[in-house]
Specification:
The complex is a heterodimer of chains A (about 300) and B (about 450). With about 300 residues, chain A is mainly α. Chain A has helices spanning about 20-40, 45-65, 80-90, 95-110, 125-135, 155-160, 170-175, 185-200, 205-220, 225-235, 240-245, 255-275, 285-300, and strands at about 140-145, 150-155. Chain A has a single domain (about 20-300), classed as Ammonium transporter fold, CATH 1.10.3430. Chain A contains 13 helices and two strands, in the order αααααββαααααααα. In chain A, strands 1-2 form a two-stranded antiparallel ribbon. Chain B has about 450 residues and is an alpha/beta fold. The chains are: A mainly alpha (about 300), B alpha/beta (about 450).
C-alpha cells in the first residue's frame, strides 16, 4: 500500500536551491540601488518610466504566451529583469509610449519570436535600447538631474568626444550628470555588481575585461591622462552594460576565457565607436556585436574534457 | 596538485558518522540475487530444501568477471526464484528461510596465503566486490600479467555522497582488518605504495588512518578537499597521484588500482576469519527514517526489514534509495534486498521526494563549470535532441561518470544526467553501425 506510492526517478535525487527564478530575482535586487539612484537624481518621472517598462514587459510576456498558448513564464522574473534593465537604459524624459514600445519590442521581437527565455540570440534590453536609438534618437539628448522640467542637453560622453570639459569625476561617480536613468550612478552599479558576485550570479571575468579594456584604451588615446580615462569609463552606459547586460547568460560565453574574450571585444568596439564613430556611445553596439559572435566564442573556448581529446 | 577538478558543494547530512554500526537481529528470510556485481550472474549450486549455514556457498561464479554468493543466514533454501534488478536484468535469486540460529558453516577456516596466486584466489573466494557501490569483482583488479604494473593502491575513503557514513565507520572500526589486507597486498602482490584518500571533513577517519601510516612507511594518507565527487575513481586518482586516466583506459593503465576502504576491510576480515562476504555495514538515514544509524545486516535482507530494524518510518516514505542521493538508485518497493554493493538505504518523505519540473535552459554554463571532467552537459543535451552524432563525437559524453553535478546545479532543473546517458547510447549505436558497415 505504502509501497505503491514510492517515486521512481533517475539520479541525482537532490538539487541545489538556486533556480532560474532565484537568479532573476537576484538580478532585480542588484539593480535596485541603480534604480533608487536614478529616481533620486531624475525624480518621479524616472519612477514612472521604470514602472511603465516593467509593467509593459511583464504584460507583453504574459500576453505573448497566452496568445500563442505557450507555457506561462512570467513567474520566472526574467521579463521583469528585461523591463527594469530597459528602463534604466532610457532617459527620464522619454515619452511613456516610446518606453512601452521598447519593452514590447524587447520581449516580443527579441525574445518571444526566437523561442522565449534561453533562446534569444541577443540581449533583449540592449537590442531595444539600440532600436530606440535608431528609431527615436533616444539618448542623443539626455535628461539632466534635478532640473524642474527635466531639461535635456549633451551627455558627458558627447562633451568628452567634443573635447569639452566633462563634469567632475566625483559627480560622474555618484551620478550627478546627464544620461539614462540607471547608468549615471557608477557607485550604485558597483554595489549591485558586488551583490551579484557575492551571490555567484556572475563572475568577475566579463565586467573586469570589458571595463578594463575601455579604461586602458581610453587612457592611451587620451595621452595617458588618468582622470580623463576615468571620466571615459564613468560616463555613458559602460558600467551598467558591462556588469548587468553583457553578463546575460544566454548571450555570453560560459567559460572564464570566453567571458574575457567577450569583454575585451566589447570594450574594443565601445572605444572605436566612442572615439571615431558617429554615435557618442558604443557600449550597446559592443555588446550587441559580441552577442552575435557568442556562439563562435563558445566554440573556440570550449574546455578540453578531462582525459579526453580536444573537442 | 596543479589544479583541482570542479565539483559541487553538497550538504553533508552525515549525522550518523558518530554512530558505530549495530548488528541487527537475523531476519526471517533473505533473498540472494545471483548478480550483486558487475559481470555475469553466479550459478546457483543449491536447491529448494537444502540446509545452509552462514557462509555456505549457494551460487558459484561464472567466468572471469563474476563473483560467488554465500548464504547470509543459516536455515533452509525455500526456492530459487527470479528477481528483476534495478538495471532491468532478470536473474535467479535464492530465497533462504532463516532458522534464527545464525550458525556459521563449520567447514570455514581462514585461508592459507603463501603466494600471489593464493592471495588472489582468496580474494576471489571471499566473494568481495566493490563495496563502495560499483560492485566490480575485486580480485579481477589484481589479476595483472605483470605484477609490477601496480604502482599504487588507492584506497577510496572519500565518501563524498551526503548521508552515507558506512565507509567512515569502516575506517574507524575496522582499521585492523584494513591493515591486514594492506600487509597481504604489499607482501604478496608487491604493491609499493598505498594512498588513502579521505575528504577533509572526516577528521577522525583521517587520524585513524594516519595511525596505520605511522606503522607502515608505504602508506600515505591524503586528505582531500570536501568537494563532491571526490570519490569518483578518476577524480580520486587525479587528486591523490596527479595522474590522468585517458578516455577508454583503466586505472591500471596508469599503474593504479582503486579500492574502497570497506572493500579492503572485508578482504582483511576474510583473511582473518575465513568468513566470506555475508554481511555488511550500511547507513540507514533520510527524512522518513525514525532512528537513523549504521547497521550491520545480512546480505539479502529486505529493505523493508532493515528500515523496520531502524525504528520504522516516521513519515510515509515517498522515495527509497539504494546508495546516496547523488548517484543512488530509487527502488519501486521495500521488498528489494540489500546487495553486496549497497552502502546506504535512504528513505525520504513525500515532500523531499519531489523533483523540480524542468524549465528552459538559460545557458548559464553552471553544468559545464561544475563538471569534474569539463564536459558540456547542456551542449550534449542539445546535440542529443538534434540527433547530431557528429557533434556528440566532439562533446565526448562517453567520458561522463554520471556523478550528477550538472543536474544538481542546474537552475532550470534539467535532467542532464539522463540526456548524457541517452547521448552515450546514441554514440554507441552509431559506432556499432559504423563498424557493421565497415565489415
Amino acid at each position: 500500500m505504502m509501497e505503491a506510492q514510492l517515486h521512481l526517478s533517475a539520479s541525482p535525487h537532490i538539487h541545489s536551491s538556486t533556480t532560474t527564478r532565484s537568479i532573476m530575482r537576484d538580478v532585480v535586487f542588484s539593480l535596485l540601488p541603480a534604480a533608487a539612484a536614478g529616481i533620486l537624481w531624475f525624480g518621479a518621472r524616472a519612477a514612472a518610466v521604470i514602472v511603465t517598462c516593467i509593467a509593459a514587459a511583464v504584460l507583453a510576456e504574459a500576453g505573448f504566451n497566452l496568445i500563442l498558448r505557450k507555457k506561462q513564464t512570467v513567474g520566472d522574473w526574467s521579463a521583469a529583469v528585461t523591463g527594469l534593465l530597459l528602463a534604466l537604459n532610457l532617459p527620464a524624459n522619454i515619452p511613456l509610449w516610446q518606453a512601452v514600445l521598447g519593452a514590447v519590442f524587447a520581449i516580443v521581437v527579441v525574445k518571444g519570436l526566437f523561442g522565449g527565455i534561453g533562446c534569444n540570440l541577443v540581449n533583449p534590453a540592449i537590442t531595444a535600447r539600440v532600436f530606440m536609438l535608431v528609431a527615436f534618437g533616444t539618448m542623443t539628448q539626455a535628461a539632466f538631474p534635478r532640473s524642474a522640467d527635466v531639461a535635456t542637453g549633451a551627455t558627458p560622453l558627447a562633451e568628452l568626444a567634443a573635447g569639452e570639459e566633462a563634469p567632475a569625476l566625483l559627480d560622474l561617480f555618484i551620478g550627478n550628470h546627464g544620461g539614462a536613468i540607471g547608468e549615471t550612478c557608477v557607485l550604485a552599479l558597483v554595489i549591485g555588481g558586488v551583490y551579484l558576485l557575492a551571490r555567484r550570479v556572475i563572475t568577475w571575468h566579463l565586467p573586469v575585461a570589458f571595463i578594463g579594456t575601455v579604461f586602458l584604451l581610453s587612457w592611451v588615446l587620451s595621452d595617458f591622462d588618468l582622470s580623463l580615462a576615468l571620466a571615459w569609463i564613468f560616463s555613458g552606459g559602460l558600467f551598467i552594460g558591462a556588469i548587468f547586460m553583457a553578463t546575460d547568460y544566454v548571450t555570453s560565453p560560459a567559460t572564464p576565457w570566453g567571458k574575457i574574450l567577450f569583454g575585451v571585444g566589447a570594450g574594443l568596439i565601445t572605444v572605436l565607436i566612442r572615439f571615431w564613430g558617429n554615435y557618442p556611445e558604443g557600449v550597446s553596439f559592443g555588446i550587441l556585436l559580441m552577442n552575435i559572435l557568442n556562439p563562435y566564442i563558445e566554440a573556440w573556448t570550449a574546455p578540453r574534457p578531462f582525459g579526453g581529446k580536444r573537442a | 596538485m596543479a589544479f583541482s577538478l570542479h565539483g559541487v558543494h553538497l550538504p553533508h547530512r552525515k549525522a550518523t558518522a558518530r554512530m558505530a554500526a549495530v548488528r541487527v537481529a537475523a531476519p526471517k528470510s533473505v533473498l540472494l540475487p545471483t548478480m550483486m556485481h558487475i559481470g555475469r550472474p553466479a550459478v546457483p549450486v543449491v536447491k529448494a530444501g537444502d540446509h545452509v549455514d552462514v557462509g555456505t556457498l549457494v551460487a558459484e561464479q561464472d567466468g572471469l568477471i563474476s563473483s560467488p554468493v554465500y548464504a547470509s543466514v543459516s536455515g533452509t533454501v525455500k526456492k530459487i526464484t527470479e528477481i528483476v534488478l534495478s538495471g532491468g536484468a532478470a536473474v535467479p535469486a535464492i530465497l533462504i528461510e532463516s532458522d534464527g540460529a545464525m550458525t556459521p558453516d563449520p567447514a570455514l577456516c581462514p585461508p592459507v596465503v603463501g603466494s600471489r596466486a593464493d592471495l588472489i584466489e582468496a580474494i576471489r573466494k571471499s566473494g568481495v566486490v566493490g563495496l563502495g557501490g560499483a560492485g566490480f569483482p575485486t580480485y579481477v583488479k589484481f589479476l595483472t600479467e605483470d605484477p609490477g604494473r601496480i604502482r599504487e593502491l588507492i584506497v577510496n575513503g572519500a565518501e563524498c555522497e551526503p548521508y552515507i557514513t558506512s565507509d567512515t565507520r569502516a575506517m574507524l572500526d575496522e582499521s585492523a582488518d584494513m591493515a591486514l589486507a594492506f600487509r597481504a597486498l604489499e607482501e604478496h602482490l608487491g604493491i609499493p605504495r598505498i594512498l588513502i584518500g579521505i575528504e577533509n571533513n572526516k577528521k577522525e577517519a583521517i587520524a585513524q588512518m594516519r595511525r596505520l601510516a605511522e606503522q607502515d612507511p608505504r602508506i600515505t594518507v591524503r586528505p582531500l578537499r570536501t568537494l563532491y565527487p571526490q570519490g569518483g575513481e578518476k577524480v580520486l586518482i587525479y587528486h591523490t597521484t596527479g595522474k590522468v586516466v585517458p578516455a577508454g583506459k583503466l586505472p591500471i593503465d596508469v599503474g593504479c588500482v582503486v579500492s574502497n576502504c570497506s572493500t579492503l576491510a572485508a578482504i582483511g576480515r576474510y583473511l582473518r576469519t575465513g568468513m566470506p562476504l555475508v554481511e555488511r555495514c550500511i547507513t540507514v538515514d533520510g527524512s522518513a527514517v525514525r532512528e537513523p544509524g549504521n547497521v550491520i545486516v545480512p546480505i539479502g535482507m529486505a529493505a523493508g526489514d532493515v528500515f523496520e530494524a531502524c525504528g520504522g518510518f516516521s513519515a510515509a516514505p515517498g522515495k527509497v534509495l539504494y546508495g546516496g542521493p547523488m548517484m543512488g538508485v530509487s527502488v519501486p518497493d521495500l521488498a528489494a534486498p540489500v546487495l553486496k554493493n549497497t552502502n546506504a538505504l535512504l528513505a525520504f518523505s513525500e515532500k523531499d521526494a519531489a523533483i523540480p519540473a524542468p524549465t528552459a535552459c538559460i545557458s548559464c554554463g553552471a553544468c559545464q563549470n561544475h563538471c569534474p571532467f569539463h564536459l558540456r552537459p547542456a551542449a550534449i543535451a542539445r546535440a542529443y535532441r538534434n540527433g547530431d552524432v557528429k557533434k556528440l563525437e566532439k562533446l565526448q559524453p562517453e567520458l561522463c561518470m554520471e556523478c550528477g553535478c550538472c543536474a544538481y546545479i542546474c537552475p532550470a532543473g534539467r535532467p542532464l544526467v539522463q540526456t548524457n546517458k541517452l547521448a552515450k547510447a546514441v554514440l554507441r549505436d552509431a559506432r556499432a553501425k559504423e563498424k557493421e558497415a565497415a565489415q
